[in-house]
Amino acid sequence: MKIFIKFLPFVLLISLTACKESFVDVSNPTAISTANYPNTVADLEQLLAGVYASQHSDGIYGRAMGGYNTYLWDHTSDLSWQGLQNWILMGQNNTLPSDSYLAVTWPHLWRGVQRCNTLLAGIDRVGKNASTTDAANLNLIKGQTLFLRAWYYFYLTTFWGESFIVNGQGGDKQGIPILTTVANSLSDTQVKRASVKESWDFIVSDLKNAESLLGKQTWTANADKHKVTGWGVKGFLGKVYVYTQDWNNAKTYLSDVINNSGKSLVSFDVYKTMFNGQNEFNSESLFELNLNVDMSYSGSSDLSMGSMIGTIIAPTYVSPTNGLPIASAWTNLFPHAKNLSRFGFNLGHYFKSGTTSANVANVDPTYVTKSQQAKANKTVDPRLWVACLQPYVDSMVVSGVKRPIAHYLDITELDMEAWSFRKYINLAGTELEVNRANGNNILWLRLADIYLLYAETLSKTGDNATALEYINKVKRRAYGYAVNTPSPVDYKSLTDKTMASDNVLGNDPLKYERWAELFGEFNWWFDVCRWKIGAQEAAYYQKVRGGAIEWNDASDYAQPIPINELNANVNMKQNVGY
């Protein structure tokens, strides 16, 4: 939203002036003095806009999320461009403490926390002389701020906490430092790590307080649609309870969202377009990051209203002059070929046997026909074509003209399935046409995710029949059937055969549906970690283009603390194995 651009300078100024002069000496004649700012609810709304904006900073959803972390760790993607060794190592599950991408994500998440803490202090200040009306508005601002602080801590804990809590174990491992106030001295920043359990408890505490303050708050004005609702808080709480295996609380919160929020699954026609700038804030969405195309700032900064994620995963299309692939933007990552067979796609390869050039002239027309029939007849999971663009079958728009998708650029292995990503890319043009500031909203929490989390919860609390029904609701929508009516594609049991044929997902509808439904939505890595299936996943994917995947159960579920942080905080300890 434009509000992010309009108000963000206030946040930057407050960030600089939030510490005492003895800690950081900043001489800025244009800075707003903390002696008279913030003083009003309007001032706090300005700061709140900056806290939301931090979610799409460079190290988070402005660029890094997915392409520079989860997509590589969970093998959603493989690498086209291989110009940096540390990127290849990430794809091999060998992330280094010196990794340049994590060195951006870590401080940007903490900047989000710091902005939350600055805002909470401002709320206390303004609240001392607040009217009844202002006090109600302050509660709404505080509820959102606590939700957002929990949001930033969620990523800090899931990326760097040494373990998830599994069967009551892992809570005593190293978690994340807990900071609730703005540092006023260097010593205030030398905070040791809390335990994993303490970190999750802190997230739950913030969310519970946010729940109390927001109640069933919803937002109807266009300028407010990006704000979290009371139901978004409850949905996030339900997800956290699943992640910490608190099944009783998970059941309470997830069922409340399902039964009382008024949310419903959208149709498949809406589902397949809602990741590409259409049907935003729909009936399925519980919380999404609101983005807009920004021709002034590229998406790798929270000064921008957009995101650069689409630039990294941008499609490759067929040149109208020579039939060869052309990059539509940076085009660094493409879907790992092993993902296609997981969706049930086993129709051979688009190039004729013996092809030596990735040219449209070498495409096998029989393959194209078979693919079109499989898509129409739904003999392959329809969500494959929601998540991915198929070479020489699908197309994209370039400068107003439809161009066929090509074999992915720089993939010299012409016998490899090298498709393009579809979710979160610009289908109406190239990423360069929108200044690398993609405006597609990030659907961060939606009802299908809630349904599957609820199914998992029910399976853990003895209600397999209802668990199966919620899994089937998600699958029915994918195949175009009525969500609440039995269909020909229903699973018959929790161990029924899925579209996948591998040992991990082949006979596990719950896991398969979470993988297929949420593919490319930055969730699978966390499922891999909390289910402890990293070794099985590594065995399935085997390798990335840069080399073999090398999984280590002892260390690879947690990422290394960046070396800069270890140097800056004497009380910070590295994760095991790094």
TrEMBL record:
It is found in: Cell outer membrane. Residues 1-20 form the signal peptide. Keywords: Cell outer membrane, Membrane, Signal. The keyword RNA-binding does not apply. Its main location: membrane. It comes from the Bacteria. InterPro entries: SusD-like_N, SusD_RagB_dom, TPR-like_helical_dom_sf. Residues 23-241 form the SusD-like N-terminal domain. GO terms for cellular component: cell outer membrane. Pfam families: SusD-like_3, SusD_RagB. Residues 416-578 form the RagB/SusD domain. Belongs to the SusD family. This is RagB/SusD family nutrient uptake outer membrane protein. It comes from Spirosoma terrae.
